Amino acid sequence: MSAIIRTERLTKSYGASRGIVEVDLSRFDHALDLAATVSRGEPHRAAALWGEALGLYRGPLLGEFAEGWIFPERTRASRRAMEALESFTRVRIVEGRA
Q1: What kind and span of H or E run contains 49?
Q2: Between vectors from CA 21 to CA 11 and to CA 72, what angle results, nearest 5°?
Q3: Low-confidence ranges of the chain (pLDDT < 50)
Q4: What is the C-alpha to C-alpha distance for residues 22 and 67, in angstroms, rounded to an integer?
Q5: Which of 22, 39, 55, 94 is buried most, with the most CB atoms less than 10 Å from its CB?
């Protein structure tokens, strides 16, 4: 039997089993990765995926936390969101919908 939430007593940490629990960061990354794959040949599909990712982005990742491990992930997510916004806007301008 697989657990949805896994805890580790020695490190006092917890984690969610991937594949069972879906989080918005995983969906965000997946949409952006797929958009990058299809962007050259299917700009309209890529724009829809960028839009989906931007809808999931709610500002700084875990903004209420200040632990050191979060800063690189927060920066990465923020950078990817800005790149998605630029790409999304570029496609919308070409479509005449910006």
Answers
A1: helix 43-56
A2: 55
A3: 1-5, 7
A4: 23
A5: 39
Q: Identify the pLDDT of residue 69.
A: 86
pLDDT of residue 35: 96
pLDDT at 42: 93
- Asked whether the beta carbons of 32 and 49 are under 8 A apart, the reply is yes
5: CB partners within 8 A, 6+ apart: 14, 15, 16, 17, 21
Where are the alpha helices (H) located in the chain, listed in sequence order?
24-38, 43-56, 70-95
Q: ∠ at Cα 32 (90, 64), nearest 5°?
A: 105
